[in-house]
Design goal:
Number of strands: 21
Order of helices and strands: HHEEEEEEEEEEEEEEEEEEEEE
Distance between the termini: 93 Å
Number of helices: 2
Shape: globular
Strand content: 35-45%
Structural class: mainly beta
Length: about 250
Amino acid sequence: MRHNRTMLTLGGAAVLAAGAGVLLPVAAQAQPASVACSETALVTAVTAANAAGGGTVTLTPGCVYTLTTSHGNDGVHGPSGLPIVTTPITFEGNANTITRAATAAAFRIAQTAPAGGITLKAVTLSGGHAATTGQNNGGGILNFGAVTLTGSTLTGNAADGIGGGIYSTGTPAAATFTSSTVKANTAGQAAGIASVNGTLTLTSSVVNTNTATVNPGGIYYVAGSATMNTSTVTANVATNCTGSPSPVPGCIG
């Protein structure tokens, strides 16, 4: 009888275990693999996302992706470090930087086509340089589609023309900044942001310490629409927004 009681106890435990198994939550789906911390891996991931019609490129936490050569050029607007973004692509970052190598030839970091989109989350773009005569707008980003920055930064980019941090232009073009920073960029004009015939929206964001040869140094805006919500444009040279073809709402100086 003792033996039987032991077997019953074990059997009961098995039933409880089985029951507990039924009550366990369904295992979470595996997270997308991070893109290896290399130029080749990042370029391959962007190319694949374009081919797939868009997607998310998950970056290795803390990685600095250094671009040593350009990988995109439409033959009209000059070279870009990343392949031209022709579809909606999200760069899911975690304290990441995408930068041009100091010894590399001049190229901007990224360009979006009219049907393309770049969403940066916790990513810094730096070191871009649009220098080719007639193709020298948009040192960090040249945008013909949609660019969205969330918790991200454009810094240390240069344009010999307009828009050191970003040049966003065209009826479909939209540039949206949320809790983001555009700082320490340089340009012939509009060292921070240039928005021409597009939509510009800044929310809880900062545009500061950008330096241009011709005013304004902070934001250049013409036609389209511009909206600033709890955002500041300060300490830009020459002027923050004065001299912009269209007044930037809420921007002083």
